[in-house]
Amino acid sequence: MSVPLTELSAGAAFAGHAARIREHIVAMCSGPEGGHLGGSMSLVEILTALYFGVLRVDPAAPADPDRDVFLLSKGHGAIALYATLAERGFLDPAELAGFGTWGSRLMAHPVRAVPGVELPTGSLGHGLALGAGFALAARLDGRPGRAYVVMGDGELQEGSVWESAMGAAAQRLDNLVAVVDRNGLQISGRTEDVCALEPLAQRWRTFGWSVREAPGHDLDALVGALGSTPWEPGRPSLLLADTTKGAGLPFVAGAVHSHFATLSVRQLARARAALAAGTGGGGRD
Q1: What are the two backbone dihedrals, phi and then psi, of residue 238, each rounded to the nearest 5 degrees?
Q2: What share of the chain is helix, strand, coil (3-state, %, to 5)?
Q3: Mean pLDDT taken over the chain
Q4: How far is residue 235 CA from its own chain's centroid?
Q5: How many Å apart are CA 162 and CA 1, to the nearest integer?
Q6: Which residue, 202, 213, 146, 206, is CA-closest to 179?
Q7: 150 with 181: CB under 8 angstroms?
Q8: Residue 27 belongs to what H/E stretch?
Q9: Dist. CA 122–CA 162, nearest whole Å
Q10: Could you read off the pLDDT of 95-128 as tens digits, one per residue?
């Protein structure tokens, strides 16, 4: 069910997918309802690495009992997930044009009506508990499936995240993998100004997890890390992915105001030009 890497590196093999996912995101943000632009753009390489290099999933059999389960705990990044599912073959890309419109199943947060979406998410702090449940169920059923959860860094201010982290470690769920989209920003400002998280890697290690860090826009690094779990037998794995909010768009990259946007015709043209030029991605601004 997984997509094998060719002799090319992950970056070379999957860069085209990431580019098209970004194009879909800005197009959806130009619709009448707008969209969560910044936090979706920071997710692109994480989702690309997972769906094209790591996850054992099959668009033709989305309910396969042996599949890997993916949960976007930061559900406000739904447009990035929809774009990725379309690129991977779960959705007709033409459906993305209806995002947020009356009658569309593509809502601001993911719902199960969308093929490839396991559960509704976006009430922040719940995704890790759900992922732990899927991982435990797979183990009890003797299934090979793994559970992957992507969280936002501001989300880590929810106490339920840490309850789930303790529970997963206590159950030795080494088929559970969590990724933190560490773009350093939340809707109300910098995470370290709102409610400091650092030393974040050490916190997760203290809770019993195996932790690694990676540049969150480097497909080679992401596929290498996420494709080699569990890093320690008997421990769940946590990847801190260092990203930039609004990555790919230099006029909003690293800015709090990129959180939600309704792009005008002029702004959409500007965004597409930036993406075509390949500017504004990678690293912290």
Answers
A1: -130, 120
A2: 40, 10, 45
A3: 94
A4: 21
A5: 32
A6: 213
A7: yes
A8: helix 10-28
A9: 17
A10: 999 999 999 999 999 999 999 999 999 999 999 9
CA-to-CA distance for 27 and 187, rounded, in angstroms?
22
Buried b (16+ CB within 10 A) or exposed e, 166-177: ebbbeeebbbbb
Q: Give the bridge partners for 152, in sequence order.
A: 181
The sign one gets for the Cα dihedral 186, 187, 190, 193 is negative
Please write down the HEC assignment for all residues of 228-272.
CCCCCCCCCEEEEEECCCCCCCCCCCCCHHHCCECCCHHHHHHHH
Question: What domains are there in the chain, each with its CATH number?
Answer: 10-277 (3.40.50.970)
Q: Which residues of the chain have pLDDT under 50?
A: 2-3, 280-285
Q: What is the model's pTM? A: 0.94
159, 162, 164, 167: CA torsion to nearest 10: -130
